[in-house]
Amino acid sequence: MQGVRRFRTLTEGGVRLELTPTTNSPLAIDVTESTEMRIQRLISENPVIIFSRPSCCMCHVMKRLLSTIGVHPTVIELDDEEIGALAAHSADSTSTAPVAPAVFIGGTRVGGLESLVALHLSGHLVPRLVEVGALWV
Q1: Mean pLDDT of the chain
Q2: Which of 46, 107, 122, 127 is packed most tightly, with the most Cβ within 10 A?
């Protein structure tokens, strides 16, 4: 594949691609785009997105919860250097909660696993997913 530097199979069944920037590919990476801008773009382009650290068990639980409801979120694994850029998208910058994993629904940060489960148990998760178009009832 042109533009693919290397790939490896993930334990959850996905594939992690390391891409090299090319200008003649329709999937070209904009190397001038900052990490903060890329995160913001991904949040705005995906109705449900999870930002995670590699091999995060909490992210796996979040994906399982959402998939049992019928939603298959976009999952982005961030390197340690990129985690700091995700903190800029936190609703409460004074919070001591971990930055990742973090789930965003409809461009709004829900939080981590605890917040996602609380939203589900309160009965507000499904209506919110329907509202952003991630789930059809």
Answers
A1: 79
A2: 46
Classify residue 94 as exposed, middle or buried by CB count within 10 Å of its CB (0-12, 13-18, 19+).
exposed
- DSSP, residue by residue, the chain: -TTEEEEEE-TTS-EEEEE---SSSTT---TTS-HHHHHHHHHHH-SEEEEE-TT-HHHHHHHHHHHHHT---EEEEPPHHHHHHHHTT-S-TT--S-SSSEEEETTEEEESHHHHHHHHHTT-HHHHHHHTTS---
3-class DSSP string for 67-91: HHHCCCCEEEECCHHHHHHHHCCCC
Mean predicted confidence (pLDDT) in 14-29? 55
Q: How many Cα atoms within 13 Å fall on the side-chain side of residue 105?
A: 23
Q: Which residue has the higher pLDDT, 23 or 55?
A: 55
